[in-house]
Each structure stands twice: as structure tokens, then as C-alpha cells.
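Same chain as my last thread, 85 residues:
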Amino acid sequence: MTIFQSIINHKINTITADELIKYADQFNISVNKQQAVKISEYLRGKNVNIFNDSERAQLVKEIAKTAGPATAREVNKLFIQLTKN
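reply #2:
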């Protein structure tokens, strides 16, 4: 894993709701405050590698259970944007 991937994964695994909203706005993805809180609480400490397709897919499924499928799709778009090189 490159240093870039490590930094991105660390940020994902420690993200706050406010940071998630900021990144979502930056990439034109709609996530409201309540959804961001739920997602950030779920992500915190999970230690997921979003560069691994299967880990990311599992994470998105879990987010769908927590925040709903539409929000999970939006968050997945954000993850894809962050993993593009």
C-alpha cells in the first residue's frame, strides 16, 4: 500500500460528520448532517481499506443498513472519487 493510500484510509477511518459533509460538498454528493453522523460513527475505527474493492463493497452494504441505500450509493461515489489516481 502506498503512502497516499494509507493517508486516505486513515482519514476515512477517523472521519467526523463535518469532514464527511465537507468532502461530499467538494465532490457534489448529497449527504445531510444526520446521515453524515451515522456514517462517521460507523466508519470510526473500522480500519477499512477503501482501495480494496471487496472491503469497500462490504462497507457500502453496511452503510446502506445504517443510512439507507441512496446515501450508501452517494458515499460510494465519494469513495470512488477518493481512490482515483
